Batch of 2 targets.
Target 1
Amino acid sequence: MLFKFLPNEFNFFDLFDKQVDYALSAATCFKELASKGAIDEGSLEKIGDIEHQGDEVAHEIFEHLNKTFITPFDREDIHALAKEIDDITDMINTIVSRLKIYNVVSVDKNLIQFASVIEESVRAVACAVKGLRSAKNFQSIQESCVEINRLENVGDKMRDVMLADLFDNMKDPITLIKLKEIYQDAETVLDVCEDVTHVVGAILLKQA
Amino acid sequence: MLFKFLPNEFNFFDLFDKQVDYALSAATCFKELASKGAIDEGSLEKIGDIEHQGDEVAHEIFEHLNKTFITPFDREDIHALAKEIDDITDMINTIVSRLKIYNVVSVDKNLIQFASVIEESVRAVACAVKGLRSAKNFQSIQESCVEINRLENVGDKMRDVMLADLFDNMKDPITLIKLKEIYQDAETVLDVCEDVTHVVGAILLKQA
Amino acid sequence: MLFKFLPNEFNFFDLFDKQVDYALSAATCFKELASKGAIDEGSLEKIGDIEHQGDEVAHEIFEHLNKTFITPFDREDIHALAKEIDDITDMINTIVSRLKIYNVVSVDKNLIQFASVIEESVRAVACAVKGLRSAKNFQSIQESCVEINRLENVGDKMRDVMLADLFDNMKDPITLIKLKEIYQDAETVLDVCEDVTHVVGAILLKQA
């Protein structure tokens, strides 16, 4: 009765494509910025804009989800997917803000390494999510998910080595506090990418 | 079949009203306490009691939710709403406990500022949640949600300025650790208030 | 009684038993390790293996959940239960990794105390979860849940006392950073155990 007046189908795939492109832009922007070791106002604003636009797409997805009766896959999976892609962009923006707030201006080799792994992982996330349009992409989606999981393990080990080194050698506690938080945040981005593979895995299984 | 034996309607609104009043009491108590800059045993106990009572209402909501067949809006939304209002009270209680544990006794101007924004935001949360009883409050609920979102942005910027200042000027790392965590927690309260607007927004959309 | 009427397409109980046994192994391993105050490579590897095996059982549960039409209790409760038992094992593994990364090698009386409470709590979690097979365990499940809640309160107070003591007496900020994080993580394990009681409570209520 209620549903009669609601649009009963909606193309969520176009919005997911847009959302995941924003996440990838954020990752690329972060990679460039890390290699320059300088947080200029321009990049800060750019990544803030990307985050804002990504946020709007997420809200569009949530709105359509609440108004749409027939969805391409389970509502909870659509919600979780939009939430987690949003978290990727958010977290990258958070790291860049912290670099500014903590006044970390020199090039940090560890951060360059992390930014590069993050960009690879978000690129694989984009492949997996964009593949969801069609069952024929099953194989390539699975390959992307394996790659994302591999990169999460790589990131885990990177963070552990970096933290052990930091606690061994950094004598200034305030610098230690800054870098510790930034490395942990960087690893969190890879965790969120892995969370995406869980949702994607659930979607594939249910369609199998 | 099973449902025949279950109470099939229950007035969740009364419980939400009670729960959100506890959240507001906690916010008001925190504001008073911040302006005094002293955590006496009395206020500590008072806020602990409020948290405990709020917790009991949350549990009552969860219990009724599991036993009730017909709910005024989606079960998942009722669950999320109760969880997030509970998180507001919890988080305020956590901040006050930390002030005690970290032995932060002097008046901190930043904290007074945060406590004031938090109280404003929780007041708007109370308006939004209490409005859910009737469709005629649609307009005022939306205004409250806009206000909560505005205050979250205010809090975000406040925290960033305070942290930048802290990292620029605080030379004692242990004091820095304490205040950094407290400012971040304070901002988290505003994030949780914003989470409430997402649930409220979903409820409004579904009823539209 | 209820379970009798459901054609159990898949026996989730066996997997939950396995999963909760891994959580308990992790807790026991952590307790031994804390009392030795030495993180040798052997225990580190052992707890890593347990975490990995627990992870695989969690994934098995998620996969079966996505493929099984009729489940012994609500799908969301099965998902939440598997997620939270996994979080217990994960968090214990995280603490042990941190001890290694932060090079915390001496025996810490606080950690021994925490490890002992954690093991008690995870043992009660195991009782509660294993009891879910049959309605006749209702009473003993409830007793386990009460015990888990009691231990969470104990842990809360323990952490507060330990942190207050740390901030009062520890003059080395880097050691303070390490121990603060480890005590907070230890308390988080007890929080996750308490989260299990919420899911278990919901399951019991729905079957009542």
Note: Confidence is low (pLDDT under 50) at residues 1-6 of chain B.
Target 2
Amino acid sequence: MKIKKIEIGENLFGKNDEIARENSELLQKYNILSLNLMGSPGSGKTSILELTIRKLKEKNITCGVIEGDIAGTFDSERISLLEVPVVQINTGGACHLEAMMIKKGMEQLTLNEIKVLFVENVGNLVCPAEFKLGIKYNVTVASITEGEEKPLKYPLMYSVSQLVLLNKIDLLKAIDFDTEKFYQYARKTNPDIKIIPVSGKTGDSINQFVDFIEEQLLIQ
Amino acid sequence: MKIKKIEIGENLFGKNDEIARENSELLQKYNILSLNLMGSPGSGKTSILELTIRKLKEKNITCGVIEGDIAGTFDSERISLLEVPVVQINTGGACHLEAMMIKKGMEQLTLNEIKVLFVENVGNLVCPAEFKLGIKYNVTVASITEGEEKPLKYPLMYSVSQLVLLNKIDLLKAIDFDTEKFYQYARKTNPDIKIIPVSGKTGDSINQFVDFIEEQLLIQ
């Protein structure tokens, strides 16, 4: 599917929270469930998206994707192979997505054909957490290769997220990672956070994320 | 060794490049070689530092460390076990170190006792690249678990670095990583960049990084 692309200039910034509210209202109007995937570079956001979208398509749940990257179209090219509408946002250096970029992204999508909107934020465990986008669920994708202490070192990301996908569990045997401590640290930062261990490589437990999405679709 | 700690308030920012120049002059005055380690959360900056400092100590090359983190003292606690002077800078939310933080950090160190100053920046593949610190060498620590395309997705980091430590090569068998492509992409972004593959777990090829440091000590 053809990739739509937006280059964001400096002048689009400002009034972020107001625009985030408008985005949220627009998504509610179209009854779209929205999820904002955040995490370090290489934590596996795109791989998880690919697997999840494939499974949602099998269930006839239509998806749309807004891909945020500083430069390039690597991720949107991968997603577009799944034949879902995808908008690439190149921030031109900025380390995070802002509400205006999501607004511009949604303008490129046919909203009444979408049930689930995924936003893949710029790979960064810090800055994306600071900007409201008007997206309903913040999802942190954490890879076990990053170490178990990250929730304590990057507390804001974990505070603003409702869900953590703890990725690359296929590598648990090859890597020193204390799963119990990770859970403890994540919950110390955010007692209400839900954690789903997954593998974006083998597909392990991706169904649990798909189940989460289906549950949210029912109650929204 | 006791960890010195600085909390950075908002009012320290500004005039960054001027202060970076002053930092650089101070380091030259004391004939200190300085290296700024940057990279994603969990790329292995601290593990590499630990191994490198241990080897430099064996050669009677004295080190000092400035640890940058948003919150916590995890890394400085690890480094302090090596009995080297370490200053922890907590940025209080900021996603990068700035020149003033380095200046304040150096004030806490006995500079005439240090030959090599390491700065470990906040784990972030984006923002730290934007701020001059007055540190001579920028070193990107990249983990193979992040994927080979990262130099193209985060070009600024690779443009401002003279050296890449390609970490976690002990996992090459467990992970799909195209080393050749990584070299190609890194050099496309920065044709002069030097790349040393290492393992912060097994210690493989850390000697090459130590050799690099010793060479720079000779020519400076």
Note: The domain at 16-219 of chain B is CATH 3.40.50.300 (Rossmann fold).
